[in-house]
Design goal:
Number of domains: 3
Oligomer: single chain
Helix content: 40-55%
CATH topology of the largest domain: Beta-Lactamase
CATH class of the largest domain: Alpha Beta
Radius of gyration: 50 Å
Distance between the termini: 79 Å
Number of helices: 10
């Protein structure tokens, strides 16, 4: 039912309900405590009046039956007193009773038969009363000796006070609920106004489709301000991604146009002049270049769209040795500084990344030069470094080396300019990074810790410490 209500209405309703529930609990607790307090006060008054009568009956028993003796000169108050003998016959009673008699209920029976005091609730005509009965001493010559004194007080005032308290609590609950709903509405309207502006701004951006626009930032630096900053940062990221996509499409179109133009020209030549070995070789080279470019574009697109890699446990040294053994066109030397280095990776993707670095070294290094692949561990990072014997990249070139379609000043023709970009995409998807320093290109990946090796090192450290400690 609340799905159709606005957030402002739900906040106001929740505040009103919370106040009503809280005041309802007070409506139960407060009258109960008030009733207990007033009843205790009345009980103390009844007991005090009974003690006075008992002292009077013990000291001067003849005065008990005198007119006005039971009218409460000492304690005052509208209390009714009735004195009975040991058989329950009335000896004296206060004038406030008129022609009425206090009921001979359970408190009186407890005082006469069990000789103990007792409280009880009863009625005097239509009026509710609180009754207290106490036994009188059996010694003495008075008619009340061995009897009991019964003192009662009306509880109508208590009930009226409780009814007034309940009405007051109920009215307070209604007033508090209305005030809470009004206050919550005003506060939520003020607090949600920036959200309304954000929503309006988001709708405008959705209609225009322009990621360069930004949402209005509220003046307050609260959660709404943080949300606006986050959304604006997301828009900035989308804008950068769109610009990068547009550049990528433009660069890809340009790169694809070159071999296609050459293919069309050679095809037109063949159509006019017939087959020529040189032209057929050019067609074959252009087709191979186009196929390689398309393969790199697809690989890069797959890396961009793929989720973070989970993969399997891969032994880096074995993977690098397989790549070196498969490359028959270059002298690839593998230096294993950490034979047990393992990572969690997609083996095919990691093979492509390392293979791209080896092909890059073969392409840009000197003819017949040696390519060195070094595997090492640095803390919790595994490193794969591929180096050739050429001059390598300058610091400025190294900063752009992994950009898409980038080619250095000494680059040879035929490359797509995507090989190193693919290496970076694969490394980052595996939680790692890639860097260039002169002729050295390094992939860093999170290494899998060898727990058995760690235990051996810890044991060795503990043993050394024990041997070095004094006896």
């Amino acid at each position: 039912m609340t799905r159709g209500l606005s957030l402002r209405a739900r906040i106001a309703a929740a505040a009103a309900v919370a106040i009503v529930v809280a005041v309802a609990l007070l409506a139960v607790v407060v009258p109960a405590l008030l009733e207990r307090q007033l009843t205790n006060e009345l009980d103390r008054s009844l007991r005090g009046r009974a003690v006075e009568v008992a002292r009077l009956a013990s000291a001067t028993p003849a005065l008990v039956t005198e007119p006005g003796a039971l009218e409460g000169r000492l304690t005052g108050g509208a209390l009714f007193v009735q004195v009975v003998d040991r058989r329950g016959r009335i000896v004296a009673r206060s004038g406030g009773l008129g022609g009425r008699l206090l009921p001979a209920g359970a408190p009186l029976r407890a005082a006469l038969r069990e000789r103990r005091t007792a409280y009880g609730d009863d009625k005097l005509g239509p009026d509710p009363i609180r009754v207290y009965a106490a036994p009188l001493g059996a010694l003495g010559s008075g008619s009340a000796a061995g009897g009991a004194v019964v003192v009662a007080g009306t509880t109508s005032d208590i009930q009226e006070t409780l009814s007034s308290a309940r009405r007051l609590v109920l009215l307070s609950a209604l007033a508090a609920a209305a005030l809470a709903a009004l206050t919550a509405t005003l506060l939520s309207r003020r607090a949600l106004a920036p959200l309304g502006r954000l929503s309006s701004g988001a709708r405008n951006i959705e209609r225009s489709g322009d990621a360069s626009e930004r949402l209005p930032a509220p003046a307050t630096r609260d959660e709404v301000g943080e949300l606006a900053d986050t959304l604006n940062a997301m828009l900035a990221s989308l804008e950068r991604a769109r610009e990068s996509e547009q550049r990528f499409v433009a660069d890809a179109s340009h790169e694809l146009r070159t071999p296609l133009t050459a293919l069309r020209g050679n095809a037109a030549y063949v159509a006019r002049h017939g087959a020529d070995p040189a032209v057929l070789a050019d067609i074959e080279a252009d087709a191979a270049r186009l196929a390689s470019l398309l393969d790199d574009l697809l690989a890069l697109a797959r890396e961009d769209a793929a989720a973070p890699a989970r993969g399997e446990v891969v032994a880096i040294v074995e993977l690098v040795r397989d790549i070196a053994a498969a490359d028959e066109d270059a002298l690839v030397i593998v230096q294993a500084g950490a034979e047990a280095a393992t990572v969690r990776a997609e083996q095919v993707a990691l093979q492509r990344a390392v293979g791209n670095l080896v092909r890059n070294a073969r392409t840009h290094g000197p003819d017949g030069g040696q390519i060195t692949v070094t595997v090492g561990l640095d803390g919790e990072r595994a490193r794969i470094t591929v180096a050739d014997e050429g001059p390598g990249l300058s610091a400025d070139e190294a900063a752009h080396a992994f950009e898409r379609f980038w080619r250095g000043s000494r680059a040879r023709s035929g490359g797509s300019g995507l090989g190193l970009a693919i290496v970076r995409a694969i490394a980052e998807r595996h939680g790692g990074s890639v860097s260039a320093d002169g002729p050295r290109f390094t992939i860093e990946l999170p290494a899998i810790r060898d727990l058995s090796e760690s235990r051996r090192r810890n044991s060795a450290a503990s043993l050394s410490a024990d041997e070095g400690s004094p006896p």
